[in-house]
Amino acid sequence: xxxxxxxxxxxxxxxxxxxxxxxxxxxxxxxxxxxxxxxxxxxxxxxxxxxxxxxxxxxxxxxxxxxxxxxxxxxxxxxxxxxxxxxxxxxxxxxxxxxxxxxxxxxxxxxx
Amino acid sequence: xxxxxxxxxxxxxxxxxxxxxxxxxxxxxxxxxxxxxxxxxxxxxxxxxxxxxxxxxxxxxxxxxxxxxxxxxxxxxxxxxxxxxxxxxxxxxxxxxxxxxxxxxxxxxxxxxxxx
Lengths: 112, 116
Fold this sequence. Notes:
heterodimer, A: 6-stranded mixed β-sheet, 54% strand, B: mainly beta, 7-stranded mixed β-sheet, 4-stranded antiparallel β-sheet
């Protein structure tokens, strides 16, 4: 099935640094979601975006719904050790109703 | 706190066993989902129930049998599984409107299944 191109696959950063990751697709999406998954746990919703151009923040996290509706970005500012985990993007394609398409995830490691 | 619970959290079973996974959502949602998450693969949608009706079976082998007795509970019955079925099985729920579930999905913590 269709996949989202999520990059980078992994990141190793120092505590305090800012982080950016993104997802792109050749299809138009109506919804973009960003999740974080800790080892052995289910994905936890971080930010939901429903409108092209929308910029939404959740604490140190900021995500944007690309104006073309084919991409989305997640930024984490001033990273801390508990930001470690896998970050997934997910999108609902135009006309797909309830189905979500997921990226493969970005593994974030933060060195104290 | 996701409001979606799953039991058991860990399960080890032999290929001839029969077991069931349980999911319960406390969010008042109308749609529930089963996903399979294997290492280094994107989440794979297995089944979708909307208002207790199965609306999606994503070519899942018959050794996986879902059951949705009401909008708050979802089961996945397992029998004669294969070692390659070992994975994290995630349940999710969303609001749902009419025949479609377009709302954001909230996940449970998952059941880590190992098939010997």
